[in-house]
């Protein structure tokens, strides 16, 4: 049986322009993340915080994740590898649809 889908409210500027503060996304827990995916993550240093980031690389059960807006993001550059909680499938609100791929990052 699959885990239920999660509806998550995005807070902050770290994923701009892909996602904005106030956007609502739909995510699936338990799905394997690959580089380029937008995901929900947790860090050991901040276990109560769920963050939305983009996967840069995956190693074992941890991922190096970055925000699409580097100057406004606290991510793996500061906190180290993160544990992927769920993969974001789409944006529900205010502009429903697929999320664009990040093109200008190696």
Automatic annotation (TrEMBL):
It comes from the Bacteria. It is found in: Endomembrane system. It holds the Pfam family Peptidase_S24. CDD domains: S26_SPase_I. Keywords: Hydrolase, Membrane. InterPro entries: LexA/Signal_pep-like_sf, Mito_IMP1_subunit, Peptidase_S24_S26A/B/C, Peptidase_S26. Residues 9-59 form the Peptidase S24/S26A/S26B/S26C domain. The keyword Ligase does not apply. SUPFAM superfamilies: LexA/Signal peptidase. This is S26 family signal peptidase. It comes from Rhodococcus antarcticus.
């Amino acid at each position: 049986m699959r885990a239920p889908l999660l509806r998550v409210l995005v807070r902050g500027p770290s994923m701009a322009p892909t996602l904005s503060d106030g956007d609502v996304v739909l995510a699936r827990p338990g799905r394997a993340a690959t580089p380029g995916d937008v995901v929900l993550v947790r860090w050991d240093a901040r276990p109560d915080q769920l963050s939305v980031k983009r996967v840069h690389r995956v190693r074992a059960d941890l991922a190096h994740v970055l925000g699409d807006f580097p100057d406004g993001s606290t991510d793996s550059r500061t906190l180290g590898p993160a544990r992927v909680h769920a993969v974001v499938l789409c944006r529900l609100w205010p502009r429903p649809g697929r999320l664009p791929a990040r093109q200008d990052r190696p």
